[in-house]
Amino acid sequence: MASSKGSAKKSTKSSGSAAGLPAYTVPSLTLDEGAKTAQILQTRLHALIDLALTLKHIHWNVIGPHFIAVHEMIDPQVDAVQAMVDETAERIATLGSVPLGTPGAIVASRTWDDYSIGRASTIAHLGALDEVYRGFITDHREAATATEELDDVTNDMLIGQLASLEQFHWFVRAHLESTSGELSTADARSEKSAARSAEADAKGRA
């Protein structure tokens, strides 16, 4: 039997659709809550697609003595992030919204520049990737926080993704850390400066 709360949702549905909100969302969320959650996820979807492509670019462009180790470390991260892309897009659709994954949509909405390192040493790419993961994880945590009061399922999904992303970041940082626990990229504030710091530190240890 439908509760009074459920009846209220039906009322929100008919008026919300006219206001440009999705025609439906998951039970227990209002249309506005569903749309707001989907919009948060849409931003993360674009970032995840970009991250998967960036990781593949790094996989193709690392060179140097540790090539094979880093080359093979990156590909499982690509696969995992691509799975997150699919998971996130399907959650947006489940919420009643339209997941946008076209190149034009990503370029139009993104607030970040393309990855800035081309063919370079493994340590340079790992330094830059440390900066990429640092920013990405910070934004992903903000998205998780923003969904805490909106939707438990979406929040749980984002937290699960964060667990994997933070582990991948740890894999990267293990190459940049000294025995005393200091990161060669600690003071870097851009991909290029992180790459330079990582290379300089590696040369200093050689």
UniProtKB/TrEMBL annotation:
Residues 188-206 have a biased composition (Basic and acidic residues). Residues 182-206 are annotated as: Disordered. The keyword Nucleus does not apply. Keywords: DNA-binding. It comes from the Bacteria. CDD domains: DPS (cd01043). Residues 39-178 form the Ferritin/DPS domain. One of its GO terms (molecular function) is oxidoreductase activity, acting on metal ions. Belongs to the Dps family. This is Starvation-inducible DNA-binding protein. It comes from Flavimobilis soli.
